[in-house]
Design brief:
35% of the residues lie in helices and 15% in strands. The chain is α/β, with parallel strands linked by helices and 454 residues long.
């Protein structure tokens, strides 16, 4: 399907010190004119010129292997001609209109519907939003509207956005500290994170203990929280540490939602669009969402997002959730191209198989390096949790040092996790085998170097 297009297979290619002279010049201007609250420019001190496949080139001509993907946005790689052609074709027609149907909008609605989890397909409605956080906020509003109850249960380690009221669903106190909205409706319970689970229960009982606690909060009028109007959960946690729950967790959570007629909101912003080897991560568990949030890679690099919800929830009033840029035609044209490629190319089988291979390779490193505490994931959503000692002390400093060491060797890889101690693999799904192998070599050499310098 893709002809004459690939990454720069010789990567990494380092022609200057990092950052190079041209990058330093642009960074200096950015530092002068743009907010100091930026994060990624502190980790990757370069200015980029272009992206090609699973590689990026800075303004000094240095070429990096991209295991970062714009934070899991570029699932089909930079400059993918399937996506670019769809955007160009739509750009020749119209780049913006609000709500009024276009061919791009209708094609996206039909294509998205064809990919939805069982039970949602042909039985759902779509509400367009702009960002992942916007989608999650709209989803919470929808759940509250349907249930007529105010409290939303979310989970420790969760990330659902940092703008508006949805910041209160995100677990990290850092983001909530400066929020302009008081937390009046979110209650966090532990996610079944077996490596650092806070309760002393057998590993096989973790899901049961979490779900029983959720049921207690809902059922008992003296549990201490207001009536629950929704449950918001990532099927595999992203920023929290690429945490894969036990197989029984989400089905059990679905049972509780059904038992008490509480909307179950599945946040697929980071885990969706093929990242785990299925178009939607929830399909690994056979669970039907009541509401599902979609963003990141769905737009092929153009900001677009959506909330999909069961059709009997479509009693919401006109102008329930507004936004001028909802359903941008360029993003929707890209979205149809992305979803069709995932459906037709066979790439999901490769993601599943290559993901298992990657877990094994990272796992083999675990046997010879006590810094690696756990390797986990599905498909190309893989987390490598680092410890600083045998007592499982989170390896925050080690992860930071490893990220920097790899960057200076030409590999972009970022962290996540409760303690920023989890390295996450989020390369494009079509990354070439050569770049996977070269990246693994850089990772292994760098982590050995960090360990030996401790």
């Amino acid at each position: 399907m893709i002809k004459n297009w690939s990454s720069i297979l010789e990567a990494p290619i380092l022609r200057t010190e990092l950052p190079g002279p041209k990058s330093r010049e642009l960074i200096e201007i950015q530092d002068k004119l743009e907010t100091a609250s930026r994060s990624y420019t502190k980790f990757f001190r370069i200015a980029l010129d272009k992206g090609i496949g699973s590689t990026v080139v800075d303004v000094d001509g240095n070429v990096f292997i991209d295991w970062f993907g714009g934070v899991s946005v570029m699932n089909l790689g930079h400059g993918n001609p399937v996506v670019i052609e769809a955007i160009k074709k739509q750009l020749d027609k119209m780049s913006h209109i609000t709500e009024i149907p276009t061919e791009a909008r209708i094609e996206f609605l039909k294509t998205l519907n064809s990919t939805l989890p069982n039970g949602m397909r042909n039985r759902s409605k779509v509400l367009f939003t702009v960002t992942g956080g916007d989608a999650c906020e709209a989803a919470v509003s929808l759940a509250k509207y349907q249930s007529k109850k105010n409290t939303i249960i979310s989970f420790s380690g969760s990330y659902h956005g940092v703008a508006g009221g949805i910041v209160n669903a995100t677990a990290n106190n850092h983001y909530r500290q400066y929020a302009g909205f008081e937390n009046s409706s979110f209650f966090h319970v532990p996610y079944p994170y077996s490596y650092r689970f806070p309760w002393k229960v057998p590993k096989d009982d973790i899901s049961k203990s979490v779900v029983e606690y959720v049921e207690y909060l809902i059922r008992d009028n003296y549990s201490g929280i207001s009536p629950v109007g929704g449950i918001l959960v990532e099927p595999i946690q992203g920023e929290g540490g690429y945490i894969v729950p036990p197989d029984d967790f989400l089905p059990m959570l679905r049972e509780v939602s059904d038992k008490f007629s509480i909307p179950l909101i599945i946040d697929e912003v980071q885990s969706g669009v093929g990242r785990t080897g299925k178009i939607w991560a929830i399909d690994h568990y056979g669970v039907k969402p009541d509401i599902m949030c979609i963003s990141k890679s769905i737009g092929g690099g153009i900001p677009v997002s959506a909330v999909v919800y069961r059709e009997d929830y479509d009693n919401i009033p006109q102008a329930f959730h507004l936004g001028t840029y909802r359903g941008n035609p360029l993003g929707l044209a890209a979205g149809s191209a992305v979803l069709n490629y995932l459906k037709e190319s066979g790439i999901l089988d490769r993601v599943k198989n290559k993901g298992e291979y990657l877990k094994k390779r990272f796992g083999d490193m675990e046997n010879g390096n006590e810094m690696i505490g756990e390797v986990r994931g599905k498909g190309f959503m893989i987390g490598i949790e680092l410890d600083s000692d045998k007592n499982k002390t989170p390896g925050t400093a080690e992860a930071s040092a490893l990220r920097d060491k790899m960057f200076r060797k030409g590999l972009l890889m970022h962290t996540c996790g409760h303690y920023s101690n989890v390295m996450r693999f989020m390369a494009p799904l079509n990354i070439e085998d050569q770049l996977i192998e070269r990246g693994i070599e850089i990772f292994e050499d760098s982590i050995r170097n960090v360990r030996d310098k401790k």
